[in-house]
Write a structure and sequence with these properties.
The chain is α+β, with helices and mostly antiparallel strands. Helices cover about 15% and strands about 40% of the residues. It is built from 2 helices and 8 strands. The protein has an 8-stranded mixed beta sheet with strand order 2-3-4-1-5-8-7-6, covered by helices on one side. A hairpin with a 5-residue loop joins strand 7 (about 105-110) and strand 8 (about 115-120). The longest helix has 10 residues, at about 15-25. The radius of gyration is 15 Å and the shape is globular. It starts with a strand and ends with a strand.
Amino acid sequence: MKLGAFSLSLSVKDLQKSKEFYEKLGFSPTGGSMEQNYLIMKNDTTLIGLFQAMFDGNMLTFNPGWNENAEEVNPFEDVRQIQKYLKENGVVLDKTADESTTGPEHIFLKDPDGNMILIDQHR
């Protein structure tokens, strides 16, 4: 199973302060905007998302159909295929994708320690 690009999504209190901090670690903005209250930041092949007032806690994020440069990857496993595989293997999903649709969709699940995982397909 290929989950796509990986990033860590961080819930931040002050987007500007977080941006400045991660820039000192060599990250630079590659997506999002201050006006939208989120930034995607990159350092080489490492991605982090900074999200202010969008969700509680931090989560692992995977983007099927994208690489670390937000470029389309073909072929790719649709989030609905991933969902089917996870369900068949006894993984409980907190939010499921609508299997009657195509295109952008997402699912949420938790690992055994309660860490949130988002599988977020944008295409």
